[in-house]
Amino acid sequence: MNAALIVNIVLLVLLLAVVAGLLSQSIRVVREYQRVVVFRLGKCIGERGPGAVLLIPFVDRPVWVGLRELFVEVPIRRASPRTMFRSRSISWCIAR
Length: 96
What we know:
Layout: H1 3-26, E1 27-30, E2 34-40, E3 43-48, E4 51-54, E5 60-66, E6 70-79, E7 87-95
Antiparallel strand pairs: 1-4, 2-3, 2-5, 6-7
């Protein structure tokens, strides 16, 4: 084999590896219960998802946001103010 041919093949393989790496960094899959807020160079350009999202590597910064609700049960509190009236408080905390 010629030395120039070997150099060309090595350069082609390196170029294909770089292109494959950039494509793997630019395509993201957003699940149904999530959204992605995309920041391009620090400026918000909008929300994306669900599905495949195309990002520009090293320029776009994705911030993942979950849409599922989180229920947290707060323990029962007993309040005894200065009067002799006693009360119980049952509460739920819903976070989005």
